[in-house]
Amino acid sequence: MLGNRKLTEEKGPEGAFFNRVTQDFYAYWHSLALRRGGVPWKEDLDPTEIVRLLPNIFIVEKLPDTGRFFFRLSGTGIRDIMGFENTNHSIDELLEGEDLESVTEMFDQVLSQAVCVRSIEGLTYSDRSYMRVEIIRLPLCRNGAEPSLVVGCLSRIEDDCDANASRRAVKNKQVIQIENDILPRKAF
């Protein structure tokens, strides 16, 4: 039965993820999609099922009046990695220029095509240190309407990564579209 899949049974496409946290969050989202028979609803998310992943999770809403993307939630692990708080801020308050355009485009792609978009991004800090992160962005619906929320996971690549992952070449902001085998369902 599809709804009884365990988190560990669906890891996403072979070798698609560098970090176990990202891999496990994708597997959780995918299990919700299987249960729902389409893009999961926000109400399907149960924080008690993913406690260990919560610090790395964010939820972004596309505001209907302005089309701006607004962080409804951003975990403490993301704050620690980014060096600032995203919760209750619009993306255009946090990013600018090419970065803003790139991230907005990825969020729009997730919502319009109901797909997972994964990126590898480099973060440079004021002390000139550098870190690579893996980010996945996945669609969520509200009460069965068109997807208007993006749920995602941001994690360091260097932490808890597959030993073989460090040997693969990765470009900054490489976007890999993962086709879902669950199509969005507009009516139930």
Element layout with pairings:
Elements: H1 20-36, E1 57-62, E2 69-74, H2 76-82, H3 91-94, H4 97-113, E3 116-124, E4 130-140, E5 149-156, E6 174-178
Antiparallel strand pairs: 1-2, 1-5, 3-4, 3-6, 4-5
Explain what this protein looks like in three dimensions.
The chain has 188 residues and is α+β, with helices and mostly antiparallel strands. It has one domain: Beta-Lactamase, CATH 3.30.450.20. Helix content is 24%, strand content 24%. It has helices at 20-36, 76-82, 91-94, 97-113, and strands at residues 57-62, 69-74, 116-124, 130-140, 149-156, 174-178. It has a six-stranded antiparallel sheet, with helices on both faces. The protein is globular, with a radius of gyration of 16 Å. Mean pLDDT is 79; it is low at 1-11, 159-174 and 181-188.
Count of separate structural domains: 1
Structural class: alpha+beta
- The coarse overall form would be globular
Q: Whole-Å distance between the termini?
A: 19 Å
Q: What does the average pLDDT come to?
A: 79
H/E order of the elements? HEEHHHEEEE
The major β-sheet equals: 6 strands, antiparallel
Cα-atom Rg, whole angstroms? 16 Å
CATH architecture: 2-Layer Sandwich
Beta-strand residue fraction: 15-25%
Number of helices: 4
CATH overall fold name: Beta-Lactamase
The tally of beta strands, per DSSP, is 6
Low-confidence stretches: 1-11, 159-174, 181-188
